[in-house]
Every structure is written in C-alpha cells, then in structure tokens.
Amino acid sequence: MVETVNLKRAQELRKLINEHNYRYYILDAPTISDAQYDKLFRELQNLEANLNEIPADSPTQRVGVTPLTSFQTVKHITPMLSLDNAFTFEELENFERRNIQMMGKHFKTFSYACEPKFDGLAVSLLYENGVLTRGATRGDGSVGEDITANLRTVQTIPLVLQGDFPKLLEARGEVYMPLNSFEKLNMNAIANDEKPFANPRNAAAGSLRQLDPKITAKRKLEFYCYGSQVIEGKALPSKHSESLQQLKNWGLRICPESNVVDGIQEVQAYYEFLLNKRNKLPYEIDGMVVKIDDVSLQEELGYVSRAPRWAIAYKFPAEETETQLIAVDFQVGRTGTLTPVARLKPVNVGGVTVSNATLHNMDEIARKDIHIGDYVIVRRAGDVIPEVVRPLIEKRTKNVKTIALPTTCPICGSEVVRIEGEAAARCEGGLICRAQRIESIKHFVSRKGMDIEGLGEKLVEQLVSNSLIETVADLYTLTKDQLMSLDRMGDKSANNLLNSIEKSKETTLAKFIYSLGIREVGESTALLLANHFSFEELKIATEEQLLSLPDIGPVVAGHIVLFFKQKNNQVIIKKLLEEGVQWSTHKSTNQYQPLAGKTYVITGTLSRSRDEIKAQLQALGAKVTDSVSAKTDGLIVGKDAGSKLTKAQKLGISILDESQLDKLLSS
Ligand code: IVH
To answer: Element (H or E) spanning 471, and its range?
Structure first.
C-alpha cells in the first residue's frame, strides 16, 4: 500500500521535474527557484532509494555508475553530412547563384534559415517513443561511436520528450562547452599541473570521449539542436525553421539567435550582426550556417558527395592562425614586471595584422614549451591582446632556441629577480629604470589618476627621452621654454599643457593615492584608503592598521607600507606637495556607511566603469562581488546583461538600473 503511494508520487515527481527542466533549459523561463527545484529532486531521490525499480529515464538517472571499457560503433540511419564553406561574400553569392540556376530561369530568391555555427561536436540523438535510447558521435559520417551514457549527463539534452512526439525521431545538433565551464576546467587543470585544453572544442571532444560518464557530467557541456528527421510518425513541417520550433515544443533546445531572412543581402546583414555578437555569446562560434528554409526546395537541390547544396557554412575570419616566432623581447612595466613579448612574422588574424603577441610570463613559456623559431598558433579574441597559444611541435626544426629570462633589465641594466612562488620576474631598478619611470608617469597623468589633459603616452615618452622630467614631480616645474623645445610643440599646445598641469594640482586624495602607482592599489583600493585615512595617517600606517580594512589583504598591505618607506618615494611625494598638489581634507564618508553589510553585483554595460561604481558602493560600506548568490542584496544592471540577470531574477534579488543605483548612492 505504502509502496503504491510512493510509486505514484515518484511518477508524479518525475513528470514535474521534467516539466521544470523544460522550462529552465529549453524555454529559459523557470517558474520555481533553484531551492524549490532541489527540494523536489531530493524528494524523488529519497523515494527512489526505497523503490525496487528506477526507470532509466528518471531525471535522477543522468549519470551512470559503471564506467565503460570501450565505445560501441553505431551505424547512422542516414549519413551525417558536413557543410561546404564560404569565406567571403562573393563565395556566398556564388552559392545562391548556383542554386537559383538549378531551380530554373524564373526562380527569384530563397528564404534562408540563419543559425550560428557552433564550435563543438555534431551528435545524433535517437528518441524511441519519446525516450532517449541512443546518442552517437558523427564519426566518419556513416559510422560513429555510441556515447549515450555521456550524452545523458548533458542537462540540456532531454532524457524524455514531451507533447505529441513521433514514435521514432532522430535529432541532430552540437554539443559544446560554454566558455565559463571551459575556463573553470582549465584553471583546475593548471592548478593540478595538468595540461590545459587548447580551446573549448577540444575540451568538449575530450569530455565526450571519457569512458566514465561521471567525469563527463562534471564538465558541464551543453547542447543545441539544429536539425532532425522523423523516422516513424507524422512528418515535420515543410520549413526548416518551423521544424525547429516543433522540436522545441517536444523539449529539444534550439538556439535563440536563429532567424529567417530573405535573399543573400539579408544573410550578409545577419552575418554582420552575429559577428558583432560573437564575443558576447557565452560559447564559441566560428561562423554562421545558411540553410534554404523550404524543405521541398532542399530536396530538389539535393547533395553533392557529402554536403548538401542547400546549406553552406559562412565562416568568420579565423581568430587563430599559424605563424612563426622570430624573437622574444622583454617589456618592462610600471612596477618593473618583465613581460615576454613574441615578435612574430606578421599574419592576419581575424581581419587584423598581428606581429606582436604576449607570452605572459616564463612559467607560461615553459608550460607551453615555446621556442624561438617555432611555428606557433596565435589567437586574438575581441579586444584582448593577441597571445601565442601553442607551438606546432611537428614543425619544429633543430634550429629553435630556448627563451631565456635576461639576468639584467634590458632597459636599465639593473638586476632581474624572480620571487619564489611568483610567476613574474622583476627589474630591481625602480625609478632608475627608464621604462618604469615612463610607465609610472603615464599612470600618474592618466584619467583615473591626476587626469592631466593633453599629456598622452607619446608626449610622456618624449619628455623622458629629452631628460625634461625624471619623476612625476618634475611635471610641475616644467617651463614653457622646455615644452617648446619638443618636436611639434607649438605655443598654443604648450600653454594648454601648462594649464592642464596646473589644473591637475587640485585633486582628491583618492585620485592622488591611485596616481602614486603603489603596487596592486587600483582605483577602488585607493578610494577605500582615502575614506579611512588622512594622507598623513596613510604614510605611517602599519600593516595591521591596513589589514583592518575590508578587501585589503597582507600582500597589498605589504606593498603600501613598503612604498611609503622608500626614500625616493618620500622625496617625490614631498616635492609634489611643495609644488601645490592638494585635496580637500575632510574625510567625507569615513564614518557614514549606510550600505555596510550589503553585497552588490554589477553586470552589463553602464555609462561609467564597473571599477568606479564598485568604488562608490564600497565607500558607503557595501561589498561588491563577482557572482550572484542567495547572499546578494542587489544586482546593478547595465545594457546587455546576461546570465547574472537571469540568475538574480530566479533568486528574486532586487535589480537596480543605473538611475536607481544613482538614487541609492545619493540617498
Ligand atoms: S547543419 C546537412 N547547423 O558544422 C547539414 N551544422 O561543417 C549538417 N555545425 O558537422 C549540419 N553548427 O557539427 C548545422 N547550426 C548548425 C551547425 C552545424 C555547427 C557543425 C556540425 C557539422 C559541421 C559541418
């Protein structure tokens, strides 16, 4: 009797959980909180623990317990095809022209389904009577590998379909690793001294090839469905785009970026839209797929060898390319850090010519095993500095040379030291080193610092090379004659510059602290310090006093104390103050901390920088963290907010736009 009741409740729960999975993963519109979901899930697990039989399609049964010893092969019902590529608009036009010709003279144009080209792995999913019974890789197109146990661990692949699904359905789509899972996986690998994956695609492939599905389950893969065939049951709609909607109704996840357009010009517009969006998507894509939407036209056009005539992959310019590493130079930063920079044979990467790329530090060079003379893969993504991803070992010759850290600074000749446990190597020259001097002056005059208008990087370099200034303090004794002696400096520009230097003397304590360039003291730490100490207090603050502030750890505290202890810094500060640099002295917000105990997260694009907002919130006592959790009190959202917003909505956390934020800050 009890058993029948439990059995019934278990069935009820499975249905309920599947429905909530559908709302969460497929519709992206959950109706219950994570906590409520977890409660249902635990109730089912507890019930099932006492049942004799648990159906394989129960939502609790995603991760199999026994690892496989090998993968079985699977013959695909119909071959899994590949796509021809177009790399230019011209090639895309050729694709349309050929198809129009094949349709006959009077044919005008096609409607196209446009989709992202996901950079993952093609898989085939077989649903028998709505239950996932087999999942396979593409393999050579005819025969793949049975990876059902691994695919079952992918949360966005439904174990059971819903609605009036056909008796036998094969869904095809791409399994990929989202960028955040990829980053976590690689961070972990590095922490464990394992080799990280080169890109999310390789990581996804490696994860699907695990014999133990428990490992795959941890990798957080996702799935988008991009096509299907009904093998038994009512046929799909006559348009590809409508079929996708149908598949969504049956519970398969389809990509919201997909769209239908008319003619090749509109395809181009979609391509540009997607290219723009590329770096904002939480997964990697390498182009778009263009498909003639009308299935009867697809059938008329048919196939050539292994690719359909009715579809084409319109690829984005590669963001990874091969070139040769010619030399390595070491750049000296503001705090003396030596960064190895690869000088490359110039190469076009994603539409931009790249001849320099960062190698990060010596540990990275060793880990990636990079040598001078190697052929290497370089990558650029969005606005980030291009980087050397890996060498092509198979192309390595005997003539390659090891990259050695110089023992002396390439700029000033001072000793270079590497501190135990730190990746960075540092020039010990301090402000003797011209590179450090130039970088620290650039930092001092920057907008977040003393904000000296009209004093750009080039001009700073000129001033230093012409020995007109040595330290930041010398800026305030520059004369008009000195400025006029510089190349291309006219009377008017010299006057303007002197004016903005003069104007910069009137500053705030926070900006002044920031501009000093103390290691690891950025904008928000500077503000925090300014709110808690007067400058006189800060100069003599002990590590203990500094550690009592939120967000200041022993490393930063150490840097601050050391900075004010150094003689040359004391001399520069004294001179700056003598020359009239000043700020109003009342510690405005020191005691007034109305947001103490509150935690905020900032997301999306706002009219001012996140650092600035963070600093303002912190000044009022709030904590600012990176991820939304139940402990978050408010989410500040700007334009194009993504998953953080969804999560906050799900958790019922209060959401503030910029004007609400301003109200909060001013109240
Ligand atoms: S349709 C006959 N749609 O690209 C059409 N493929 O180069 C077959 N891919 O093996 C595929 N995103 O792994 C299609 N939206 C998309 C896709 C896509 C990525 C991959 C797929 C396929 C490869 C072909």
So the answer is: none
pLDDT band at 589 (very low <50, low <70, confident <90, very high): very low
Is residue 117 annotated as a catalytic residue, yes or no? yes
The burial class, CB within 10 Å (0-12 / 13-18 / 19+), for 598 is: middle
How remote is the CA of residue 309 from the centroid of ligand 1, in Å? 13
Out of 8, 39, 75, 117, pick the active-site residue: 117
3-class SS string, 396-452 = CCCCCECCCCCCECCCCCCEEEECCCCCCEEECCHHHCHHHHHHHHHHHHCCCCCCC
Q: Which of 5-19, 211-225, 518-532, 584-598 has the lowest mean pLDDT?
A: 584-598
Shortest-distance atom of ligand 1 to CA 313:
7
Q: How far is the CA of 117 from the centre of ligand 1 (A)?
A: 7
**pTM score above 0.90:** no
Confidence of residue 593 (pLDDT cuts 50, 70, 90): confident
Phi, psi of 448 (to 5 degrees): -75, -15
Residues contacting ligand 1 via CB (< 6 Å): 81-83, 115, 117-118, 122, 138, 174, 226-227, 289, 308, 311, 313
By the 10 Å C-beta count (0-12 exposed, 13-18 middle, 19+ buried), 7 is classed as: middle
Inter-residue contact 161 to 250 (CB < 8 Å): yes
With the most atoms of ligand 1 within 8 angstroms of its CB, the residue from 76, 78, 82 to mutate is: 82
